[in-house]
Design brief:
single chain; 345 residues; alpha/beta; Rossmann fold; six-stranded parallel beta sheet; 12 helices; 11 strands
Length: 345
Amino acid sequence: MKDISKINPKRILVCQLRQIGDVVLATPSVSLLNKKYPNAEIHVFTEGKCAEVFENNPAVQHVWVINKKELANPLKALTFYRMVGRSGYDLIVDFQQLPRCRWMLLFSNASVKLSFKPRWYNRFLYTNWPDSIPDGYAAKYKAGVLQPLGIEWDNEKPQIFVSDEERAEGRACLDSLGVGESDTLITVDPSHRRETRRWSAESYGKLLALIAQEREGIKFFLLYGPGEKDVAENVKSVAGLGEQCVMLEKPGSLRLMAALIERAVLHIGNCSAPRHFAVGVGTPSITPPGSSSSAWTFPSPEHEEVVPEGVECQPCGNEKCASGLMKCLNELKPEVVLERVLKRI
């Protein structure tokens, strides 16, 4: 591999297709690339559901959006990958090595194609990769791919840039739900597609009721995604707080979610995308991580995870609990989380 620490690219492509939280965790690397190469044009290659993450980001000039339905046609897909790959990039940074990224790279004539160490059968697609990447926070790990460029992660946070128009939309949304400017707002994300990372709706509901008993003037906004409304409704029912606990009839956009979390004094939720949005907009967060490791928690006192004591198998990172007991979630009592919450509001 050649030394690329002194290159001066004019156009850079960053590849991070999914998931939404992982895309948020790629934003520090985009910022680092912009800092290193301030005159370079930076583009992003991602899936449609994730594209909103980069809206208003001053470091990003263009986003290539993968539409899975449109690209179901192999000929259209290859035409699209060729168009992206042949768009004049000097440097391509691939954080995932997914098939769609590899197809695009096949068509690219970029002089530098950078990623984490690929398997032997993919190495022909890349020109450079770091020998090793240090463990730790997930955004730090992603930035480790940039080491051959002479770039090191220095505690950079994920970044979500909320516009004034989006803040106004957030205020209008809250106003329509009876949440005023003077109300103290907490956003809550009780959903997750994996059961080993989903604290129960009953536990969230009890926690919100306990918070309301201890602090006056608190309003709770329940976040949820497609197909998850029933979870939020269960939390609202258990909490029994009426108009003090609000939610939308349909899931809102990622941009609205960012504006609402930014407005909040605290975000409480599972190990999913909203917790990374909280870091990105500067709102403190508390997370019951379940099986997730601390690699998903930004290393700062403002962002903490809460796990029950004495659960030796946590974190396992598994999608299914080996014992079936899910102690990392079921043994976490709302009263324990309450203590952390009260220190912040």
